[in-house]
Amino acid sequence: MPKTSQAAGLHRASLAKLHDLDAALELMYYGWRGMTLEADEYLAKQGLSRPHHRILYVVARRPDIAIGALIEILGISKQALNRPLNLLLERKLVTSKRSPEQHRSKLLRLTDAGKRIEQRASDHERKALRAAFDRVGASGAASWMAVMGAIADNH
Prior knowledge:
Layout: H1 12-15, H2 20-45, H3 50-61, E1 65-66, H4 67-74, H5 78-90, E2 94-98, E3 106-110, H6 112-152
Antiparallel strand pairs: 1-3, 2-3
Helix pairs in contact: 2-6, 3-6
């Protein structure tokens, strides 16, 4: 897929016509799509998608996480987690073991293959962020972090 200087559908001239918050929402939508594009293409080649990557990302940073805690972090239902998690377990990208303290609870951990896929997918996203931060400079990156932190604090 050839890269263009702008995300398909985003026309910067049209942003000026929008209310400030609508322009910010549009930039967030297209920015997210731009940041995840290469990662999603890589994941698709692996037979995976964005929900799989979200699970891999969280489990990579919290080995032996309980399924209930994963559900809470992702902000999804147990039913929504079921299908993507089962595929990751079937493909041996994630392991599940009973908690020694709570036998009804299962703890999740990435396998080496799961770690590799998570790392490569996240590397694509880190690369996009690094390029954007380099482009806007340290103060722009700090401002972005402050805005995203404020939005994240809403949860």
